[in-house]
Structure formats: C-alpha cells, structure tokens
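Same chain as my last thread, 236 residues:
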Amino acid sequence: MFVRRHITLSGLVLITLIAFSFAATSHAQGTMQGPNDPATVVSTAGPFVKPWTSPGNASALDGVDATATATAPLQQTDFLDATDFGFSVIGGRVIRRVEVTVVGRANALITTIRAQLLKGGVPVGNVMSAFYPNSVADGTITFNDQDDVPFSDPLVLWGTTWTPAEINAANFGVRLDFESLSGVPATFEVDSVQVAVYSFPVLPTAEVWGLLVTTVALMTVGMVVLYRHRHKALFA
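reply #2:
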C-alpha cells in the first residue's frame, strides 16, 4: 500500500512537471505574420534629390522594378518608403521580431542599402545597412532584429519598442535608401519590399506563479514520501 502510494505521488509530480512545461511551451509559441507586401510605396525626397521612377513597382515580387540612379560616389538615392503592410497582430501580444526583405540589384560594384522602420509614418530607431547585390539577376537582402525570450516585457527591436497597434497601423513601414560607393553612376532596382512580424502571447504573472507553486508543492510531497520510504525504520 505504501509503495503504491509512493508511485502514485511520484507519478503525480511527474505529470505536474510535464503539464507545467507544456503550458509554458504552449504560451511561448510564436506566431508569424507575413511576409506581407506593402499597399503603398512612394519616393520621399532625400539630400541629393535622386527620385525613384515608378516606386509602386516595389510593392510586389513580379519582376517589374522601381529604379533610381546615383550619379556620383557617396551619393544617395531618395528614400523609398513602403507602408500599409496589412498586419493584424492580436492586442496584448509581444513583438519579438521584425524582418524586412528586399529583392533587387544594382549595376555598380560597391553599393549599400539602408533600412529603418517607420512608426506612425516617422523613421525611428536604428538604421541597418548591408551591401546591395551587384549581379545580373536579382539578389535578396534580409534585415531582422529579434528576441526569443517568451516571458518578459516588450524588448527594444530596431532600437525602439513596438506594440501590435503600431505594427497594424497603415503608416507602419520601412524606409530604404541606397548609396553608391564606387566611382561610376549606379542604378538601383527594387522589385519587392516585404515585412514579416513574429509575436508571442504574454503568460499572465498569476498563472506563472500558480503553476510554479503547484509544481514545487507536489515535488516537496513526493520527496517527503520518498524519504519516508527509504528510512522506514525511523518512522516505525
């Protein structure tokens, strides 16, 4: 009878641990939306007045490109602003990653692309940069900032914080600009700008502590029963 009781309690502790782990894991599972295309892509004036031709062509991956030309070294194009990505992240979720993917190419050897997110239509946070593809066929550049810790407050992504409402807004987006580092004119082509967003639900603090306290209590009972079983003579 005592051994059967011991096994039952130990099994209960094990089941509780598994349940706690499953509950935490299920709450920690992320959801991805996207990659989504922008509904709007416009050319916004930059310091060198190098506007984009047909900027709306960068709103879909279809082989039809937006183009701009930098005519001197260290010259930047105007900004290419892509917004209205149509996200519908559920309120209360924590934004864990924002990923921007650009497909295109340049006809000069050394060129760069910079990306900065738009919050409320205004550029905010960090600017990320990379070399832009110089090839006959289009290449792909991906920028992302992420965090995989499931139980914490919203973290700083791209140098700022994000809420679902800000991501869902029509004026959320990404600003791109391109620069030639070579001594020849550089024509930039952009076929597509896409954004994907990863979010996690928040496990309520009361629920976390409830699961933890239950687990610790059952583990304690199991250890006491095991101790009594191994030292039966002391309790005879």
